[in-house]
């Protein structure tokens, strides 16, 4: 009984820590107004790393042993733990999926950054087709918030490239 209580205390602390990570990941991102689309990819790569590390920890043998002991003791904390485990898995899958889709845009980021306005415009139709494909096929990235954020960053990059071109010319 005493061991079970100590393990429940540990799991309760883990639950609070994992909830905090989930809450922070869902908060509105504060970003500079002139960020380009590479920042979107970097954001999702960082998020994928965070949640994959968290999943690795949750699936570790140490945690599995503690959870199995609490299952045998019919602990009430396991319901919350299982819900959080599911939420972390969903967040990890979302980040992984978004990174995979955003990598398809990576080939366009260099021309948006370094090309002249005329050359840059040659890439826009393909870029828009790829964004449309992401919107139509991604189970996670097809929200208006995600698309707005991405298109805003692409627009920022195009404006910055044009400014640089005008200042150099």
TrEMBL record:
GO terms under biological process: microtubule-based movement
GO cellular component annotations of the record: axonemal dynein complex
Residue span(s) of domain Dynein heavy chain tail: 5-167
Domain of life: Eukaryota
Native source organism of the sequence: Indicator maculatus
A single GO molecular function term of this UniProt record: dynein intermediate chain binding
One Pfam family in the UniProt entry: DHC_N1
Entry protein name: DYH5 protein
């Amino acid at each position: 009984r005493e061991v079970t209580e100590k393990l429940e205390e540990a799991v309760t602390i883990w639950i609070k820590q994992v909830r905090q990570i989930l809450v922070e990941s869902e908060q509105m991102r504060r970003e500079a107004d002139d960020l380009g689309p590479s920042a979107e990819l970097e954001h999702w790569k960082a998020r994928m790393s965070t949640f994959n590390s968290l999943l690795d920890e949750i699936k570790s043998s140490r945690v599995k042993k503690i959870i199995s002991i609490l299952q045998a003791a019919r602990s009430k904390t396991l319901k919350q733990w299982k819900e959080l485990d599911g939420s972390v898995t969903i967040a990890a899958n979302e980040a992984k999926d978004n990174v995979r889709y955003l990598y398809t845009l990576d080939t366009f980021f260099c021309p948006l950054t370094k090309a002249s306005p005329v050359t840059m415009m040659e890439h826009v139709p393909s870029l828009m087709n790829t964004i449309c494909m992401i919107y139509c096929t991604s189970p996670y990235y097809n929200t208006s918030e995600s698309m707005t954020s991405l298109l805003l960053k692409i627009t920022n990059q195009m404006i910055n490239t044009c400014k640089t071109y005008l200042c150099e010319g």
